[in-house]
Every structure is written in structure tokens, then in C-alpha cells.
Automatic annotation (TrEMBL):
Stretches assigned to the NAD-dependent epimerase/dehydratase domain: 3-247
Top-level taxon of origin: Archaea
Pfam families: Epimerase (PF01370)
Gene3D superfamilies documented for this protein: NAD(P)-binding Rossmann-like Domain, UDP-galactose 4-epimerase, domain 1
Protein known as: NAD-dependent epimerase/dehydratase
Xref: PANTHER family: EPIMERASE-RELATED
Keywords: NAD
InterPro entries the record matches: Epimerase_deHydtase, NAD(P)-bd_dom_sf
Length: 319
């Protein structure tokens, strides 16, 4: 079996690929363009680990380049796609909207079109809790209305879900969309709050705390996310088009997360309190009923344990 993983040098793509390579004989075909949105050295380090496995093959390519992607598909003929490549970041989408249009929309369209061309039966693709926008009803259900995004990033993820439905309806490709909720952990993204907080607290620098620390996030540890993706990959029953929440099942206030980092670093944070930023939402909270029933998804790493693991890893590596 061959699984093509887009965004293989990214946080989630790397973590999923490493798990599969360690535990199975499945071949992973990784695609990534090593986007410089954050330090490329971290992506290269992830890749170095993956390249240590004999069943891993990597292509340095951008998913917006259809003809080059076509050559890779024709050469490798994957059996299944795990599409995780995207331009990430809610706030960055306010500054560089065109990057999101190209990477998230055109890139996803290319992947789906090639799935059709090469007869690939199932595609698992990354969506986001951001699609719920300013929904005030919690927890968020997959059946909730998501027609009012509050960031361009969220709008691109909603678009991905829509065209996935089209490709299922017209061509019968099984489409499984996974709405990730604030994924964190080792080898994570340096642009995310938990990473910035850890770095600055250790260096005794101020941290920016938006909405005065009163935002809540359904933080989800990376190993739980990986298990959710694997469940979608190996799901035995036929799926037409389904969306699933993958969350941590326990929204945490920002102030509490900061206190955990303080505990693990042994240092006090210097807090710079700020109002909420454009595009941010006040709370995310996943209803996991559907995911538990269909994917047997039960997150088991609590925020206390997850932050402990991350801070230990960060101190050892200091990326």
C-alpha cells in the first residue's frame, strides 16, 4: 500500500508519516514545498527523520503546480491520499491573502483532480475548527452552520469541504474531512501561542496575551490527532462524504495553559495583555460524538501531560 501525504514536512504531516513508517510496512510518498512561513530548518529536521525510513520517498514540490504533481502521481500511483498541505495561520491570512488562495484552494483542487484522474478511492483531507467562525453555541457539531467564517483561512477550509463534496458526488471518491482543533506538541509550529509562550518565558521576554487571556481553546495533542487520521485511513466501511471533529474534548483557558508552561519551565511569564485580534474566536469546543462512534476516536492526552511533554522536548531541542 502507498499513501501519498501532502505537507509531509509539516507538523501534522510529519507526525502522521513517522507513526505509519515506524509501525507498518506501508510506503509513504511525501510532498512538501518547504514553505518559509516558519523556520525551514525545523521542516528539514522533520524530513531528515522521515528519510531514515526505507519506506519513505520525498518530492520537493508545491501542490499548486499541477503538471509536476501529475508526474509524481503517474510515477508513484498512490492508493490513498492524506492531504495535509496548506498555508496555515489565521492572523497571517489577514496579511497575505493570495497565498491562501493559491495553496489552500488551487492546491486542494489539484489534489482532488489528480485523485479523480488516477482512480484513487479515498482521500482524507485537513479541515479546521476555524470553519465554525463566530458560532456561539458550544460544543461545535459537524452539522452546525458554517457559512459565516471570520477569517480568510477559515473560508479556504470551508471551500475545501465544499469541493470535496463535489468530487464525491460526481466521481464517487470517498472524502473524509477532519476538522482539527488547535493541535500542539513536539515538533509543532513555532507560530502558535504555546510555542511562543514557552520560548519567551524561558528567555524571560514578554508574551502577548490576546483578549486578556480569556479565550478558550480545545487544545489537541498531536498523538491524538495522528490516531484520528489513522482511523480515517484504515476505516473498513465505505464512506461517501463525511466531516469529523478531532478535538481534545476539554477547552482550556489561555491563562491556565500559561500557568502550566510556567510550572514546567520554573519561570514566571511577563504578560502583555492585549484585546482580541481580528479573525480570532473566543472559544473552540468540539463535539466528538460522531468521531467517537465512527472513528473510535478517544483523545487521551490531557493538557497537563501534553504541555509537560512539549516543554521537555523544547528544552532539549531549543528550535
Amino acid at each position: 500500500m502507498k499513501i501519498l501525504v501532502t505537507g509531509a514536512a509539516g507538523f501534522i504531516g510529519f507526525s502522521f508519516s513517522e507513526n505509519i513508517l515506524k509501525n507498518t510496512e506501508i510506503q509513504i510518498i511525501g510532498i512538501d514545498n518547504l514553505n518559509p512561513y516558519y523556520d525551514v530548518k525545523l521542516k528539514e529536521k522533520r524530513l531528515d527523520i522521515l528519510k531514515g525510513f526505507k519506506n519513505f520517498k520525498f518530492f520537493d514540490e508545491d501542490i499548486i503546480n499541477y503538471e509536476e504533481l501529475d508526474e509524481i502521481f503517474n510515477l508513484e500511483k498512490p492508493d490513498l491520499i492524506v492531504h495535509l498541505a496548506a498555508q496555515a495561520g489565521v492572523r497571517y491570512s489577514l496579511e497575505n491573502p493570495h497565498v491562501y488562495e493559491y495553496s489552500n484552494n488551487l492546491g486542494t483542487l489539484n489534489i482532488f483532480e489528480l485523485a479523480k484522474k488516477y482512480g484513487i478511492k479515498r482521500v482524507i483531507f485537513a479541515s479546521s475548527s476555524s470553519v465554525y467562525g463566530g458560532n456561539e453555541k458550544t460544543p461545535f457539531l459537524e452539522s452546525d452552520n458554517v457559512d459565516k467564517p471570520v477569517s480568510l483561512y477559515a473560508a479556504t477550509k470551508k471551500y475545501n469541504e465544499l469541493i470535496a463534496h463535489v468530487y464525491n458526488h460526481l466521481y464517487g471518491i470517498e472524502m473524509i474531512g477532519l476538522r482539527f482543533f488547535t493541535v500542539y506538541g513536539e515538533f509543532g509550529r513555532p507560530d502558535m501561542a504555546y510555542w511562543k509562550f514557552t520560548k519567551n518565558i524561558l528567555e524571560e521576554k514578554p508574551i502577548d496575551v490576546y483578549n486578556y487571556g480569556k479565550m478558550k481553546r480545545d487544545f489537541t495533542y498531536i498523538s491524538d490527532i495522528v490516531e484520528g487520521i489513522k482511523s480515517a485511513v484504515f476505516l473498513s466501511k465505505k464512506i461517501d462524504y463525511e466531516i469529523f471533529n478531532l478535538g481534545g474534548d476539554n477547552p482550556i483557558e489561555l491563562e491556565y495553559m500559561i500557568s502550566l508552561i510556567e510550572k514546567e519551565t520554573g519561570k514566571k511569564a511577563i504578560k502583555n495583555y492585549l484585546p482580541v485580534q481580528e479573525g480570532d474566536v473566543l472559544i473552540t469546543m468540539a463535539d466528538l460524538t460522531k468521531s467517537k462512534e465512527n472513528l473510535k476516536y478517544y483523545p487521551n492526552i490531557c493538557i497537563e501531560e501534553g504541555i509537560k511533554r512539549f516543554v521537555k522536548w523544547y528544552i532539549q531541542n531549543r528550535y
